[in-house]
Amino acid sequence: MRAEELKGHLDALLLAALEDGPRHGYAVMEALRQATDGRLDLPTGTIYPALHRLADAGLISGSWSVVAGRRRRVYQLTGAGRRALAGKRADWRDFAAMISAALEGSPCPDPA
Amino acid sequence: MPGPGLIEDYRAAVSAQLPASIVDELADGLAETYRSYLDQGLGPDAAARAAIAEFGEPALVVAAFTRASPARRAARRLLMTGPVVGACWGAVLIAGRAWTWPVPIAARVLLGMILAGAVVLLATAALLPRYRPARHAATAACAWLAAVDVAAVAAVAVLAPHVPWPGLFAVPASASRVAFTTRAMRSVLRP
Q: Do B65 and A67 touch (CB under 8 A)?
């Protein structure tokens, strides 16, 4: 899957990757690759600006440590981030059900 | 060692354009990527090339940071809200029949140039595809606009009984913008 296809969904993916605990940027990308069986094809360097944007929005927080002589920034979800992730999950389920109904003729569930 | 040499070249390329804290974070991620390819059995040079290919070329990463930068977001928000604040003050001037005020033409031209300068700086920050110049332009524009707003509100405070009624909207609009530009400058200048 290419970056342009992810437009609008990257924030939710990054929040989901941090749901299980704090991760640094590379570990976030690895978690997304594992979760998608390697089908997610984003340049790793481009997820860092998205992490910074989420941190500026207060959805994640970053803290610095030193690992193997290198400065490392580790991110974790904030309370607002957990709420945002729950909302994005619900929106995605509604959206996916609606598109499936239109493309495949499956019954469209009533909105909650 | 050719591999680490490529990694150092990468670091130097992003260092020239991004703040040190971002460079440190990218360098850590790139080092982890490089190490993972070494663990898979690639030699240093092949591992470095594979790591850079996976990470994205410096120009791509710098462009992504510039698009997501606090400077660009602040500049775009100020460009969008500027006409509203400007309309409030325009209403003050019209209601007060500003064209009849004994203000020298040079002062009017100077005010126009100050406002135009702020717009140019904001447009530069919003559109320039380079991180550091966009950051400098956004910082200057925020400081510039804050000074204009503080001066406008101070003028109202001095002339208080004689300020036309649209000042009830213009003063809060400028005060809100001062609060926003102050927060934005802190965010833009964060190391």
A: no
Cβ <8 Å between A25 and B29: yes
The number of beta carbons lying within 10 Å of the beta carbon of residue B150 is: 13
Residue B186 exposed, middle or buried by CB count within 10 Å (0-12, 13-18, 19+): exposed
C-alpha radius of gyration, chain A, whole number: 16
Place of tokens 């978690």: A31
Cβ contact (<8 Å) for B28 and A24? yes
**ipTM for the whole complex:** 0.84
Residue type, A21: G
Cβ contact, residue pair A44, B54, below 8 Å: yes
pLDDT in tens, B73-127: 999 999 999 999 999 999 988 988 888 888 888 988 998 898 899 999 999 999 9
pLDDT digits (tens, 9 = 90+) for B168-187: 899 999 999 999 999 999 88
Q: Which of B21, B61, B187 sits opposite A45 (nearest CB)?
A: B61
Dihedral, A3, A5, A6, A8 alpha carbons, nearest 10: 120
| Strand extents, DSSP E, chain A | 23-24, 60-67, 70-77
Res. A111 pLDDT band, cuts 50 70 90: low
What is d(CA B144, CA B154) in angstroms, rounded to the nearest whole number? 15
Residues of A in contact with B188 (CB under 8 A): none
DSSP code of B141?
H
- Beta-ladder partners of B143: none
- Distance between CA atoms of B169 and A97, rounded to whole angstroms? 46
Q: What angle do CA B128, B117, B163 make, to 5 degrees?
A: 135
Which contacts of A59-64 are long-range, i.e. CB under 8 A and separated by 24 or more positions? A59/A11, A59/A15, A59/A84, A60/A14, A60/A15, A60/A18, A63/A22
Residue A14: HSE in the Cβ half-sphere, 13 Å Cα cutoff: 29
